[in-house]
Amino acid sequence: MLAARMYGKEDIRLEEVAKPAIGRGEILIKVKAAAICGTDVRMYRNGYKGITEETPRILGHEFSGVIEEIADGVAGYQVGQRVAVAPNMGCGICSYCVAGNGHLCHTYRALGINLDGAFAEYVAIPAAAVSGGNVCVLDERVSFEEAAINEALSCVCNGFERCAIRPGESVLVIGAGPIGIMHAMLAKMAGAAPVFIHDLSSERLQICRMIDPDFITIEDHLKETIMEATAGEGVNVCITACPSPAAQQTALEITAVNGRVNFFGGIPADKQKVALDTNLIHYKQLIVTGTTRASLTQYRNTLRFIATGILDVKKLISRRMPLQDIMTGFELAQKADGLKNVICM
Description:
- By secondary structure, this protein is an alpha/beta fold.
- The protein contains twelve helices and 18 strands.
- The chain has helices at residues 38-46, 95-98, 127-132, 144-148, 150-163, 178-189, 202-211, 222-229, 245-253, 278-284, 296-308, 326-334, and strands at residues 2-8, 11-16, 27-35, 57-58, 62-70, 82-85, 88-89, 109-110, 122-125, 135-137, 171-174, 195-198, 216-218, 235-240, 255-263, 287-290, 317-321, 340-344.
């Protein structure tokens, strides 16, 4: 089969490899759509532990496809079913896993991260993921492309749930990439008004307005604009959907008393020492939280959001391209050109 394997930093090779063989309890999926994620780009740009010339890996953790083969020991699935797969799996027995938070397991594994993923014609789903419920049968109303970007949406839903947004509250999202726009979409779904989006790119903000004219976009003078728009109070909820220490610092300044702040975007290793004015948290009674990845419940819930039309994620797909053009997709993603680039088989 054709696959895009990473051999190290900035080294992805499109090559023919053996089709995965599956063992007891496993499922083989013929990939139909696989989206390029910011995590994929960071792994490509910076390298990743365990990926070497001797131990290459197929990336791709946002994907959907059709069940091609089912091994002995698998119940509840049939060949030919359209499915999407949540990539994260835990040990299944620790306190985090038992509580439904396998994505936070200390021995967490993920397809396309530390196991071969879906930038290939076929992907094998481990028995732990099959028995754990990671394989989700798609509603007929959900396309393969929409299902592929559901993984990102489920991670956003994790942050959304932590913020507990209520109808009529003001929300600011800092960062107008696909993740930031998903945050804004979920906030509006919850009844937030107004929903502000800030970014330094006028092109990205133009895309936001095209996706939803109700979004209020801010390019310059963020603090002054927010304070003026909220009568000096600040926003009820602020989400930093970008890898920026300055954004985290500003978030505390422009969030209202009793507000909530979600640090969704991780900070690069060389910038992780962020100076925060903790008195702002103390005297304004702010709730500051962070989130990472998503639970299986969140993954299934957001698939329902897509199926029922509560959220229209088709607008977030900028380009569809064949696996042979995957490096073009990576180049576009590195330049923040468009939103989601999806590899379609």
